[in-house]
Amino acid sequence: MKVTDVKITRFTYMSQSIRDTDGHGHAAPKDQAHEAVQNVLTIETDEGISGHYFGAANPGTITGEWREYLVGKDPLYREMIWHNLKNRQRSHKPTMADRVLTAVDLALWDIGGKAAGMPVHKLLGAARDKVPAYASTMVGDDVPGGLDTPEAYARYAIQCKERGYPAFKLHTWQPPLEGAPSVKRDIAACAAVREAVGPDYPLMLDPYHNYSRLEALELANGIYELGYLWMEEPMDEHNMSSYVWLCEQTKLPICGPETAEGKMYVRAEWIKAGACDMVRSGCGDVGGLTPLMKCVHLAEAFGMHLEVHSPGVGNLHALGAMVSPGLYYERGLLHPFVDYDATPPWLNEPVDPMDSEGFVHISQNPGLGLNINWDYIHSHKVD
């Protein structure tokens, strides 16, 4: 089998999400959906099997210099291809970020599963076909009825619990929102949610990412007293020594690194240094499913949890192949104004359907299991 073409198809859809000037996602006000652009990467082969991935970053690089490299390669040599592209990143960091590498790697896994006639998690070596999910909120806002107060988070946590989610994670208020960040307001939101859902319901926090050491410690100790399960990225992750300090100072489990560059290598350094109690990694953070599974096995070797970062079909298949925890699939980002359960118009079914008991079911179709609505994509295609 050989790769014959690599292409990107761009198309429009109506989105319920907007981004602020710092890049954080928010829900658009009710009844104010807006037109946005999505893309799908397609890698074609001479045997008629194609691999797909939605949302490829920097598509010009993929269909330019990376297409030149990929055409003629055997797509089943994923490990060799991933290492070669990873090595090319050294001199092309502005255009070859990990999220670019993620798209190519997942499209190749899609081909591999289809060629084998099995879903990717079974190609990896399956451990389960469904995974419990936690409700992961958007960051706080100032919109009435949204996530504008501690009480609003509490009301929404109850809704998510009633929907079936077995756990709930807050993303609290971030700049440029007025008054953010605030340790005391974060703790108030966490306290309101704990009171609303009861003492035994698992809760987590992902707060502002640039708190100082003392602020991060105050926050960690505050939510430890509330019985929270973990906290993610309260400080700049380039400063690993601050995370070593924080883990030594608080009893609350710290989960990381999330956004620090360096793939499995940096996670090995964090484990060795004692900078985290739980490992954090996802396809988009490390450059695909290939390196994510390396991180999974690294955490397993040290007897540590690895909590997968962000939703997405690649992360879901990784969880299906994990024996060592992974406790949850991160489902979201969620908001009272957003119907996350609705099927995106470019698909015929969602990639992460969740039942009433809070389990997300992994597709049993070959490859990544994407059921693509090509009629919609072609009728909304843009140059």
Mind explaining what this structure looks like?
- The protein has 383 residues and is of the alpha/beta class.
- Helix content is 36%, strand content 20%.
- It contains 14 helices and 15 strands.
- The chain has helices at residues 59-63, 65-70, 78-88, 98-116, 120-124, 150-163, 183-197, 213-224, 240-249, 263-273, 283-286, 289-301, 313-320, 374-379; strands spanning 3-15, 17-19, 25-27, 34-45, 50-54, 130-137, 167-171, 203-206, 230-232, 254-256, 278-281, 306-308, 329-334, 359-361, 381-382.
- Strands 6, 7, 8, 9, 10, 11, 12, 13 and 14 form a nine-stranded mixed beta sheet that branches. It has a four-stranded antiparallel beta sheet with strand order 5-4-1-15.
- Strand 4 (34-45) and strand 5 form a beta hairpin.
- Helix 3 runs antiparallel to helix 4, helix 7 (183-197) runs parallel beside helix 8 (213-224) and helix 10 runs parallel beside helix 12 (289-301).
- The mean pLDDT is 96.
Quick structural overview:
The protein is an alpha/beta fold and 383 residues long. It has helices at residues 59-63, 65-70, 78-88, 98-116, 120-124, 150-163, 183-197, 213-224, 240-249, 263-273, 283-286, 289-301, 313-320, 374-379, and strands at 3-15, 17-19, 25-27, 34-45, 50-54, 130-137, 167-171, 203-206, 230-232, 254-256, 278-281, 306-308, 329-334, 359-361, 381-382.
